[in-house]
Design a protein that fits this description.
Radius of gyration of chain B: 18 Å
CATH topology of the largest domain in chain C: Rossmann fold
CATH class of the largest domain in chain B: Alpha Beta
Strand content of chain B: 5-15%
Bound molecules: flavin mononucleotide, iron/sulfur cluster, FE2/S2 (inorganic) cluster
Number of helices of chain C: 17
Order of helices and strands of chain B: HHHHEHHEEEEH
Radius of gyration of chain C: 22 Å
Strand content of chain C: 5-15%
Shape of chain B: elongated
Oligomer: heterotrimer
Largest interface: B-C, 57 and 71 residues
Strand order of the largest sheet of chain C: 6-5-9-7-8
Chains: A alpha/beta, B alpha+beta, C alpha/beta
CATH class of the largest domain in chain C: Alpha Beta
Distance between the termini of chain B: 45 Å
CATH architecture of the largest domain in chain B: 3-Layer(aba) Sandwich
Number of domains of chain C: 3
Shape of chain C: globular
Order of helices and strands of chain C: HHHHEHHEHEHEHHEEHEEHEHHHHH
Largest sheet of chain C: 5 strands, mixed
């Protein structure tokens, strides 16, 4: 829209016509106080804090509902305005408990800040305040009624933002109250004699995030600490493939530093306002007492704690000997969906150069190889998360973002709300997002291949595509899609192989994204943790990397083949990093009877329990590096917490290589190697090296003094991996996301016969693979959800 | 519309609700009248009423609850068969509204929003009922009784008692 | 049953059919019913709006906005359907005029609704009565059914092809705030009665997002009479910029309370002393609330004033809804103020802070004050809170609560001070412990 010029407190400002005064002012650094206003949600004009004086208007006006107009002359601070705001605060404080010293929001409270600013602390009412006990609405959401100022942010966040509508306003006047969707007398939940109202919802905690005061508090954080006693580190959530930034509040404890809070106060991430249940609360696995904190070696059948040296020597020597005796290809390596790009790259380089085999794989949660090869040579056809946020038209094929990629779902909803985006959905389930869809096509469970064929123009595929949809429904769906000039296609991970390739062929004008399951699933593929492709999906033979590695050019064993080999006594050793294949693929423990197994993990998983050597590893919240979300948006991971006795997977891989007698400089191109600072990476100080190097890089100093510095490897990744070569360090270090796409041509050739081996983990909002059982919060919430009266949300979808 | 298989309402009321849901440009518009008619029949807005009306209008039960708790004539607990609503707002107050309320409290032996043990009467102090020029005024269920005195009030209550079989 | 009153000074335009059984459609037709509608169909929108403008009719709901002008604001063309909304929520304490129109002359409201529809090109009208008016809803429903039966409503009304008009009648369920025009639309859409942000105004975006004319029942009922007698003729009855007559409900301490139709600008003193027969029991007048509870009170020495919007505004009060409440010398303003604020505290929708909390604190303070636990600071606090509500709330209810309160504490401060000193009314109207004061709606 055209710009208009207007005056605020004597300054001449300009903003696009129609901009709300409160936003226009904010973008020029003039803050207008507001309780009920929340950017992106519907307008309320209820709190009256944003009142300003506009020339020629008889009364004070609310800046939150007034669009700027040409020539408007506004005063935002004056004795009159200050008095109006002060009076409003006095009225609020009359009933407010003023229990700031124990309130979770203390120090982060908008009511506190405004009272401080307008000095309305003197309460002049003789009447007693009406007290109400705090209510537990769910394991993660608590409500403290007397603190509530009725700004209705939570109600709108839940309804407009999350499309759940689990919160409303009950009663009227002075007894108005925020009400959850299961009233006390129907909840069946009784705590010391009183029935409790309950929340039947997605437990995202967005209501808490939006609450300007301490009325809504988090079950995992309440009464734990004061905000200023924590260090806050913004990093990337480990739980799904969407790549939300979560700000972790950590506090020093005896054995390192523990995470107390995850939230989204820092809205700088690609997730903007959003964070789901897992991103907000499911950090607690990191503090679990079952964490491994000492290396273990199997001695006469039992895993017993040993020193790092003993464990590393034992594992290193054993691997070296087995490689000698039974050859590199008798060793297999399994990587992780939750380790950093640097670690994934390092692991496959370890396999290919230290061991000398292509027997490397991971639990694949989406067929990125097909995506990359189908789009090779094109430009701008890999979709970013930001496309879902902005694209005027989106096709969603398969998948259920609401449960598996919550940020993707949020962006789709927000895009519809703000930009009237057109959403087309083809799914075999009636997923919740169909409520936002312009067209919903219910395809048969195995109809995605036929859908691709049908979209490509073959009408004979209609019946196989959907038994429910009418012919005209199908054809209008197709023609609508072909008519969309600017189309983003988001594909669930059940679509893969030939079906995926054909779908991409059928829509030559569209941008594509593939939804994977974990924080760095995309990174694991991009970094070549695959038996038949090198980093960047380069082929095993002929590519630059291939020649540098001088490794075998024949494809190695894939994950399942490794276990077949083991069963056939052909696998001498298996090195598993942050993965639980035994559980995930339901493999019979006996298969590994005659294989030397080394596992590094957080917990004694089903796989670790079978190992001969177990290394206690740090998790994603305890290290630095980078991860790439499903869309190819790469972001910095910053070390937030610390657990004594654990080490980053990066360090462990390097040390293992060292103990195998490998020249580390050829593995990690770090600087003045001889004086490399190994000291900083021991014990509770582990990770110092990377944190230190991040700092040095940020300050343009020469880092990489340590072989444990992930940035040393990032140099090599940038040099060798297509798509990653265009990364800007400053963008990375300042926490911005950058989109990478392995878009060169000449990628690895894949045959129709290739097994994609994708196993969708079909996690829900309340599960996260093997971490689920180590998160008390997730356990609680699952119990809560299962006791809900199912049909309270029924008519909503 | 979610089709109601077994309604908790009488056939007549159920039929009326089917019609109500159809006449408005948006069917949710029928909510407030529906709640009132439901209360007239059931005696109050029970959970069952909330559930069925939510189904009929494709609303969340939460929405229905939030709306019903806004309106002061709607109640979620039973009242007496004859709900005596005494206006004490300014015009009635000037002509003895409070005295009348007091009188009712004593003759019925109940207080505000209470019900007689036999379940026949309940009492409520209400805001202006739009009979200011004929004050003091009282509403028993939907019947207006104007220009009252304690004596006239007794007579009014008697007429309702008389309706009951002895 | 409301008793009808009359007085020689009355000018019966709107009330001319009262007491003649006009609720019966045939009787209504005898008394030249539905002539205006047919005239309106014949003459067309332009003419209707001009006549209404000429009549100088101003809204009878309280705000007194010129009706002809309001109708002219409705856009000629609109993709969304246009609606007429008749506001019969009549809940302003001291007001019962619409009550009597619904009872005595329901068809005049139907006619007025059709006429408004013809004027702005709407095909559907809603008549919304307050929940307590169930027996009046039954009367309206009967009247509407009869009109349909005679072909005055529905398709091709009065045999005119393509001229369609439908009416839906319904009641609320107890909420003063729902009388506020935008809250009324919310209620009619099945929601909580929370007002809407304006702009956009109802004439542009109203019911179901369509352009909507919303008028008070009395305003609407005037339309047919105005079309029959002509705008100028109607305007002549009243005073400058205050055309015609108005139904005044005179209540409280007078000999002959009732609803009288007096010309706009009629003397307040005469209304009390002649028309309503003077102060009950020969007592002295203390004060008058001239237009319903939200209008600031007038002292006995302020009643030599003409009853129209402008003169009352000049006197620092309002004509409001025309409900004149008369207080004799025995009334304690402390009690009267308490009862008034109790009403607004109970009816505040709770949406915005100054009204929700302000009415609550004033009520709490005055309740304690009245019970004998007051302090001098309370009087200042009440005034401070009320002053800080004025003009700061989301809808006018906040002002409606603050204005009368300011009137009481400013004009009668001495009475509050005497009360502090221990003075008590000779015959108290409220028991000292207000037993069982109204709880809030529903849910608990
Ligand atoms: C709190 C509040 C209550 C109101 N109650 C009523 C009412 O009961 N009846 C009514 O006609 N207007 C009422 N009004 C005025 C309406 O908002 C609106 O101005 C009126 O219905 C317009 O019709 P008119 O122009 O014919 O007066 C109320 C306004 C407010 C702020
Ligand atoms: S002033 Fe505010 S709280 Fe009061 S009725 Fe209006 S919107 Fe509701
Ligand atoms: S922010 Fe404008 S009224 Fe609350």
């Amino acid at each position: 829209m055209a710009d208009v010029t207007f005056i605020v407190d004597g300054n001449t400002l300009t903003a696009p016509a129609g901009t709300l005064l409160i936003d226009a002012c904010k973008s020029h650094g003039i803050e207008i106080p507001a309780f009920c206003y929340y950017p992106g949600l519907s307008l309320q004009a209820a709190c009256r804090m944003c009142v300003v004086r506009i020339e020629k208007m008889p009364k004070l006006q609310t800046a939150c509902t007034t669009p700027v107009a040409e020539g408007m002359n506004v005063t935002t601070e004056s004795p009159e305005i200050a008095q109006a705001r002060k009076a409003t605060l006095q009225l609020l404080l009359g009933n407010h408990p003023l229990d700031c010293p124990v309130c979770d929001a203390g120090g982060e409270c908008e009511l506190q800040d405004m009272t401080f600013k307008y000095g309305a602390a003197d309460s002049f009412y003789a009447e007693p305040k009406n007290h109400r006990d705090e209510q537990k609405w769910s394991p993660v959401v608590y409500f403290d009624r007397p603190r509530c100022i009725l700004c209705y942010r939570c109600v709108r966040m839940c309804g407009e933002g999350m499309d759940i509508f689990a919160l409303g306003v009950a009663n009227r006047g002075a007894s108005s109250i925020i009400a959850p969707n299961i009233p006390a007398h129907l909840s069946g939940v009784v705590e010391n004699g009183t029935e409790l109202a309950q929340l039947d919802c997605e437990q995202c905690g967005m209501c808490i995030d939006a609450c300007p005061v301490g009325a809504l508090t988090s079950g995992t954080y309440r009464y734990k600490t004061r905000p200023w006693e924590m260090n806050h580190t913004a990093t990337v959530c480990t739980h799904c493939g969407d790549g939300c930034k979560t700000t972790l509040g950590v506090r020093s404890v005896a054995d390192g530093s523990e995470i107390l809070r995850g939230d989204n106060r820092d809205k700088s991430g690609m997730n903007g306002d959003f964070l789901c249940n897992k991103g907000r609360y499911a950090f607690d696995f990191a503090n679990n007492i079952e964490r491994l904190t000492s290396p273990l070696i199997r001695k006469d059948g039992k895993l017993v704690p040993v020193s790092w040296d003993e464990a590393l020597n034992f594992a290193g020597n054993k691997l070296r000997d087995l490689r000698q005796e039974r050859g590199p290809n008798s060793i297999g390596i399994i990587g992780s969906n939750r380790t950093t790009n640097e670690e994934n790259y390092l692991l496959q380089k370890f396999a290919r150069t230290v061991i000398g085999t292509n027997n490397i794989d991971h639990h694949r949660t989406a067929d990125f190889v097909t995506l990359a090869t189908s789009l090779q040579g094109t430009t701008g056809r890999f979709a970013s998360q930001h496309d879902v946020e902005k694209s005027p038209a989106i096709l969603l094929v398969g998948g259920d973002p609401t449960n598996q990629a919550p940020l993707t779902a949020w962006n789709i909803r927000t895009n519809v709300r703000h930009n009237k985006a057109r959403i087309y959905i083809a799914n075999h389930e009636e997923i919740k997002l169909r409520r936002q869809a312009k067209a919903f096509l219910q395809v048969s469970q195995f109809g995605y291949g036929s859908l691709a064929t049908y979209l490509a123009g073959d009408d004979s595929a209609a019946l196989a595509t959907s038994t429910i949809a009418q012919a005209d429904e199908l054809s209008s769906f197709r023609s609508a899609l072909l008519a969309e000039a600017n189309l983003t296609v988001v594909i669930g991970n059940e679509v893969r192989g030939g079906e995926l390739a054909n779908l991409i062929k059928a829509l030559p004008h569209a941008r594509f994204a593939l939804l994977a399951d974990y924080a760095n699933s995309r990174g694991a593929s991009d970094m070549g943790v695959l038996p038949d492709a090198l980093p960047g999906y380069q082929s095993l033979a002929g590519s630059t990397i291939a020649s540098e590695y001088a490794a075998a050019d024949t494809p190695g064993l894939d994950l399942l083949a490794m276990f077949d080999a083991a069963a056939a006594n052909k696998l001498s050793a298996l090195y598993v990093v942050g993965s639980n294949p035994i559980k995930r693929f339901g493999i019979d423990p006996a298969t590994l009877a005659n294989t030397f197994v080394v596992v590094q993990d957080l917990f004694l998983t089903e796989t670790a329990a079978l190992a001969d050597v177990v290394f206690p590893a740090a998790n994603l919240y305890e290290k630095s590096g980078s991860v790439t979300n499903s869309y190819g948006d790469l972001q910095l991971v910053s070390k937030a917490a610390d657990k004594a006795g654990t080490r980053s997977d990066f360090e462990l891989i390097v040390r293992l290589a060292g103990h195998m007698g490998h020249d580390l400089k050829t593995l990690v191109p770090f600087g003045k190697g001889l004086r490399s600072d190994l000291g900083q990476s021991r014990g509770a100080q582990s990770g110092e090296a990377d944190r230190h190097s991040v700092w040095m890089t940020a300050n343009n100093l020469e880092p990489k003094t340590s072989p444990f510095d992930p940035f040393a490897i990032l140099d090599e990744i940038q040099r060798l991996v297509p798509g990653y070569d265009k990364l800007l360090r400053l963008q990375l270090l300042s926490g911005n996301d950058q989109h990478v796409s392995p878009a060169t041509s000449g990628l690895v050739q894949i045959t129709a016969a290739r097994k994609d081996l994708v196993l969708p983990s079909s996690d829900t909002l309340f599960t996260s693979g093997s971490l689920t059982r180590y998160s008390p919060m997730l356990q609680d919430v699952q119990r809560h959800q299962s006791t809900e009266v199912a049909d309270h949300l029924a008519s909503a979808d | 519309m979610a089709t109601i298989t077994t309604s908790i309402f009488t056939p007549a009321t159920a039929a009326r609700f089917d019609k109500l849901a159809g006449i408005y440009p948006v069917k949710r518009s029928a909510l407030v009248p529906m709640l009132l008619y439901a209360q007239d029949e059931i005696g109050y807005v029970s959970d069952a009423v909330v559930t069925e009306i939510a189904q009929r209008l494709d609303l969340l039960e939460l929405d229905v609850r939030n709306v019903l708790s806004y309106y002061s004539m709607l109640r979620t607990v039973p009242a007496g068969k004859y709900n005596v609503q005494v206006c004490t707002n300014i015009s009635c107050m000037l002509r003895g509204g409070f005295a009348l309320l007091d009188h009712c409290k004593h003759t019925l032996g109940i207080g505000h929003k209470e019900t007689t043990p036999d379940g026949l009467f309940s009492l409520e102090e209400v805001e202006c009922i739009g009979a200011c020029c004929w004050a003091p005024a009282v509403q028993v269920n939907y019947d207006f009784h104007d220009d009252l005195t304690p004596a006239k009030m007794d007579a009014v209550l008697e007429t309702y008692r008389a309706r009951e079989p002895r | 049953m409301p008793t009808l009153v009359s007085h020689p000074d009355e000018v019966k335009v709107l009330s001319r059919r009262f007491g003649q059984g006009a609720a019966n459609i045939d009787k209504y037709l005898e008394l030249d019913g539905y002539k205006a509608t047919q005239k309106a169909i014949a003459e067309g929108p332009e003419w209707i709006i001009n006549t209404m403008k000429a009549s100088g009719l101003r809204g009878r709901g309280g705000a007194g906005f010129p009706t002809g002008m309001k109708w002219s604001f409705v856009p000629k063309v609109s993709e969304k359907p246009k609606y007429i909304l008749v506001n019969g929520d009549e809940s302003e304490p001291g007001t019962c005029k619409d009550h009597i129109i619904f009872l005595e002359d329901p068809h005049s409201i139907i006619e007025g609704t059709i006429i408004a529809g013809l004027a702005v090109g709407s095909k559907m009208g809603f008549i919304y009565l307050r929940g307590e008016y169930r027996y009046l809803l039954n009367i309206m429903e009967k009247a509407v059914a009869d009109a349909y039966a005679k072909g005055f409503l529905g398709k091709n009304i009065f045999g005119n092809d393509g001229v369609d008009f439908d009416i839906i009648t319904q009641t609320g369920a107890g909420a003063y705030e729902v009388g506020e025009e935008s809250a009324l639309m919310e209620s009619l859409e099945g929601k909580r009665g929370i007002p809407r942000i304006r702009p956009p105004f109802p004439a542009v975006v109203g019911l179901y997002g369509g352009p909507t004319v919303i008028n008070n029942a009395e305003t609407i009922a005037n339309a047919p009479h105005i079309l029959l007698m002509g705008g100028e003729a109607y305007a002549k009855i009243g005073t400058e910029r205050n055309g015609g007559t108005r139904l005044f409900g005179i209540s409280g301490h007078v000999e002959r309370p009732g609803v009288y139709e007096l010309p706009m600008g009629y003397s307040l003193r005469k209304a009390i002393y002649d028309v309503a027969g003077g102060i009950k029991g020969g007592k002295q007048l203390k004060a008058v609330v001239p237009g319903g509870a939200s209008c600031p009170i007038l002292r006995a020495d302020e009643i030599d004033i003409g009853l129209d919007f402008d003169q009352l505004a000049k006197a620092g009060s309002m004509l409001g809804s025309g409900g004149i409440v008369v207080l004799d010398e025995t009334v304690s303003i402390v009690e009267f103020a308490l009862r008034t604020i109790r009403f607004y505290q109970h009816e505040s929708c709770g949406w915005c802070i100054p009204c929700r909390e302000g009415t609550d604190w004033i009520k709490k303070t005055l309740t304690r004050f009245h019970a004998g636990g007051g302090t001098r600071k309370d009087i200042d606090n009440v005034q401070y809170i009320a002053e800080n509500m004025m003009g700061r709330t989301f809808c006018p209810l906040g002002d409606a609560a603050a204005m009368p309160t300011l009137g009481f504490v400013k004009k009668f401060r001495s009475e509050f001070e005497e009360y502090l000193a221990g003075a008590r009314p000779a015959n108290p109207l409220i028991q000292i412990q207000p037993v069982g004061e109204p709880e809030h709606a529903g849910a608990h």
